[in-house]
Amino acid sequence: MQVHSFLHSDTETYTHVLADVQQQVCAIIDPVLDFDSKSGRTGTNSVDEVIAFVNEHGWELLYIIETHAHADHLSAAIHVKEKLGGKLVIGQHITEVQKIFKQIFNFDTSFRTDASQFDILTDDGETLALGDITITAMYVPGHTRADMAYMAVDKEKTVVFVGDTLFAPDVGTARCDFPGGDATTLYHSIKKLLALPEDTIMYLCHDYPSQGRKHCPTTTVAAQKLGNIHVKNGINEAEFVQMRERRDATLEMPRLIIPSVQVNIDAGHFPKPEDNGTRYLKIPINVLGQ
Question: Metallo-beta-lactamase domain: which residues (predicted)?
Fold first, then answer.
């Protein structure tokens, strides 16, 4: 098993490539589309580096895995699929998130809330085969209702891609104030992850390093239990929920939440072009945030 991580500097998001190098197959987790919110222009320079890396190694892409419908970056899954193939994977509870945001954005009846835009829907405990690697879905809601972590195991080691449930120990945990989020639920999801063996490597979806620290894509269960500022050993459920709810009340909405959610709940598709050939996204006024 090999994991290679690529940092998208604008959104501080990690895209990971998980590979069975003997079987020459791989998965890409959480690919990012470049998006300039000032101009509305998209780009693929960052994800093209990931695609080139896969091509250079001659690996076959089997899966494009989204840990959840991200609110801080736009998915590049469609571009990856066009270039490399692969099946698009997300947790089956994405249907709940689709229904929530279909109402918020007042999408018409053509928007599907059955997750049929995706190829594979995973439930807790279900597995995907990637050569000799077994990928197991872990349902970890709280940040959203549909978050999944994905644990990858082979004969050599165990790693887990945690999405937005946990960040580096000095950063803490995911916010829970988006529609459908819940701090109590997140606490129990995190405890599920922290029950894994302490030497399990956790691959982060984001890193927002404190001053003086460089970006790092990994942590471990042991490091989280010892030092996570929000949920380390000794912090109980009530303390966590109180901290999380107070903190969330002070946070601004993510810079890219409005374009990101619209695109990501539709598997990375943009709306169809209107009669002038241009695609448009919607902005709900006085709906999100405080």
Answer: 12-206
